[in-house]
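Revision sheet: structure tokens.
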Amino acid sequence: MHAQPPRTDTPLLQLRELGKVFHTDEVETHALSGISLDIRRGDFVAITGPSGCGKSTLLSILGLLDPASSGRYVLDGQDVADLDARGRARVRNGRIGFIFQAFNLIADLTVEENVALPLTYRDDIARDALRRRVREVLEVVGMGHRTRHYPGQLSGGQQQRVAVARALAGDPAILLADEPTGNLDTRNGEAVMQLLEQLHDSGTTLCMVTHDAAFARRAQRIVHMLDGRIVDEDSFERLRAERDLPLPGLVGAAP
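Predicted:
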């Protein structure tokens, strides 16, 4: 697969004072308030917080599945407010990869067909290139031998690996993962986390929502949310210090 560009000081994703309000007949719910966040190419960011704090709402906005009510969102230099519905769909399909807790594979499609499906909506990929790309990403996630199988013939961990391959197939600028280990047992959850770490090491930019504190600590940054706001952030350096591990490049540092 193709590695993403190296990490730079120019944010791939910028949020400024982002807000989201849901309206019903009698209630106005402020799901997000004043969210400001930068994610740069090559980052691995974990978003944590209690249920109902706005994590998944934020991820939906990042993935252009839902618009913000206020504030500014710039993705790879493009202010998403300037996009119409078709433009949002085009950017979402070409620049953003999704991994969902529930896998969201189509039961009557094979592994190969599930991974290929998002690419069939793009007119910039020839059929032969599409097939090559699908085979390539399935090899990356260790599922190249299961191309003709159906989701019901796979374990939960294998289904999530196929979902990761589907997210990678379009060579996205950023990979968004919403509780990617939430439906998995400990062994399969660990295997998926190792896969995400390998993808990050190869240059993939990742933003992951998770309730699992141990998995969150394996990211470079942890963004803590509460009541629709960012309340704290742990940097890579702070996380390593808390675990008493040497920083990269410190020759002779204690193991």
